[in-house]
């Protein structure tokens, strides 16, 4: 695959990400009863080490939603947010003033809200990808965790790292428009297919 073909496929991944983001934004707007916009500024293929650096480094505390993919596409999916941005989103749902970075990891209602938000966003991304390449994918029930990037990522990679060493990285920006004020939050998607699924994705995109 030459550089131009790779760039074309990454552009398609970004386009698919934007389709998923648009659908997720509609669902979140209905859930929160607020205008939510989402977009994907970039997509790229990275190594596992690069993945952790893009999420802020292995020692950075983050909130993450993790799920596995089964079916014709198999692998793992992470949606990673800084604690600050995760709290911005969660507080839109539960409006609990006691929730803060110090107690987030033990706050049952906050974690449940983050799980629901991550589930909505992840499901729309996977649906957009599945529809575009014509391959069925079934997501697992998402898990949510507040911990350091390294601990979260390595726990989710124990099985897949034996077979793969790269991930599809998709940046995501969420913005809430309220009384002409815009509040933004940034998240990172890391789609980590098993090698045969990765080849299916890239081969199908290469035909488009």
Task: Tell me what you see in this structure.
- The protein is an alpha+beta fold and 208 residues long.
- The chain has one domain (3-206): 3-Layer(aba) Sandwich (Chemotaxis protein chec), CATH 3.40.1550.
- It has 6 helices and 8 strands; from the N terminus they run αββαββααββαββα.
- It has helices at residues 3-32, 48-54, 83-94, 108-133, 149-157, 195-206; strands at 35-39, 43-47, 61-71, 75-82, 137-139, 143-148, 166-178, 181-193.
- Strands 1, 2, 3, 4, 5, 6, 7 and 8 form an 8-stranded antiparallel sheet that branches.
- β7 (166-178) and β8 (181-193) form a beta hairpin.
- α1 (3-32) packs across α4 and α3 (83-94) crosses α4.
- It is globular, with a radius of gyration of 17 Å.
- It starts with a helix and ends with a helix.
Q: What's this, in brief?
A:
With 208 residues, the protein is an alpha+beta fold.
Terminal Cα separation, in Å? 15 Å
Supply the CATH architecture.
3-Layer(aba) Sandwich
Beta-strand segment tally: 8
CATH third-level topology: Chemotaxis protein chec
Major sheet: size, sense and barrel closure? 8 strands, antiparallel
Q: Give the low-pLDDT segments.
A: none
Number of domains: 1
- Under CATH at level 1, the class stands as Alpha Beta
C-alpha geometry: globular
Please identify which CATH superfamily we are dealing with.
CheC-like
- Total number of helical segments? 6
Radius of gyration: 17 Å
Calculate the mean pLDDT score and round it: 83
Going by helix content, strand content and strand pairing, the class is: alpha+beta
Helicity level: 40-55%
Strand percentage lies at 25-35%
Give, in order, the helices and strands: HEEHEEHHEEHEEH
